[in-house]
Amino acid sequence: MTWTEAAVVSRSAATPDIAVIDLAPVAGAAFPAYTAGAHIDVLIDSGLVRQYSLCGPPERGTYRVAVLNEPASRGGSRAMHALKVGDRLRISAPRNRFPLVRARRHLLFAGGIGITPLLAMVRRLRHERAEYTLHYCARGRGRAAFVADLADDPRVTFHFDDEDPGQLLDLARDLGGPRPGTAVYICGPDGFMDHLLGGAETLGWPKEALHKERFGDPPVVTGSSAGAFTVRLAATGAEYLIPEGRSVLEVLLENGVDAPFSCQQGICGTCVVRVLAGDPDHRDDVLTDEERADGLFTICSSRAFSPVLELDLT
Ligand code: FES
């Protein structure tokens, strides 16, 4: 990963828990352009890498991120909330694993801080005069970021947990059954994603119509693939035991293997390698069914059902 130094040029509070941070280049060159749904990786001082969606108007030349302060996190949100104007940090170029797709209409569902990539998408869709609807769910109006940016838009519906029950998200009403030419975008924390994706499946939506980005900590691995297995690197034949509770990535890095990685949560796709033999248990939230069928595998989060997994790594 190539890192670029960026400076904090503005910082404000969208809510008591959500900081909005604008970053600008330190050395003269402009930041690369990005498309709606893109994120940047941020290298936190402790060595953690975290992904934040870009949610500001792209024409400004700065990158805007919004960060929820999560006391239970591993330190990324705390470090981001401690930033002051003038502080510097290292960021990656934008990448987009959650782009807008060509569709006749776009149906967007945001849960809490999951509004960030969808806000950029709404701006883009407005600009293109495309047909879209956004459903924005949050615990309460005072805890939801960017309400003022969206309040005047008749195509946006808010759903707040602490207001009239009649306005809560109702999947039968707000998502409904599949409609040809409609793309659905879902972004939010685990509980929200599971509710939406489970509901969409029950309502009969095909997987190809659903586009998703999950916020939150890596999934807890349980079940038949949680135990130890061996990884063999095809190029060298070297074998490594992956014990229960440790990832392939952790073990490979510990043994000096130059493996690519970023989020370590199965959501960014940086660590993807090809499986040459064995039966993988995919525990990521980034690969499509086609990519999995094509042999791709995330070494930061996925495991194996078979005793040995051979990977296309040196
Ligand atoms: S490092 Fe991001 S998916 Fe593995």
Concise account of the structure shown:
This protein has 314 residues and is an alpha/beta fold. Helices cover 17% and strands 32% of the residues.
CA radius of gyration: 20 Å
Count of runs of 4 or more consecutive helical residues: 7
Order of helices and strands: EEEEEHEEHEHEHEHEEEHEEHEEE
Estimate percent helicity.
10-25%
Q: Count structural domains.
A: 3
How would you describe the shape?
Answer: globular
Looking at CATH, the homologous superfamily of the largest domain is Nucleotide-binding domain of ferredoxin-NADP reductase (FNR) module
Bin the strand percentage: 25-35%
**Might you state the CATH topology name of the largest domain?**
Rossmann fold
Specify the CATH class of the largest domain.
Alpha Beta
Q: Largest sheet, described in full?
A: 6 strands, antiparallel
CATH architectural type of the largest domain:
3-Layer(aba) Sandwich
Which whole number gives the mean pLDDT?
Answer: 90
Query: Which ligands, by name, code or SMILES, are bound?
Result: FE2/S2 (inorganic) cluster
How many E strands?
18
**Multimeric organization:** single chain
Spatial order of the strands forming the largest sheet: 4-3-6-1-2-5
Low-confidence stretches: 218-222
Distance between the termini: 18 Å
Q: Class by helix and strand content?
A: alpha/beta
Keywords: 2Fe-2S, Flavoprotein, FMN, Iron, Iron-sulfur, Metal-binding, Oxidoreductase
Cofactor: FMN; FAD
Protein name: Oxidoreductase
Pfam families: DmmA-like_N, Fer2
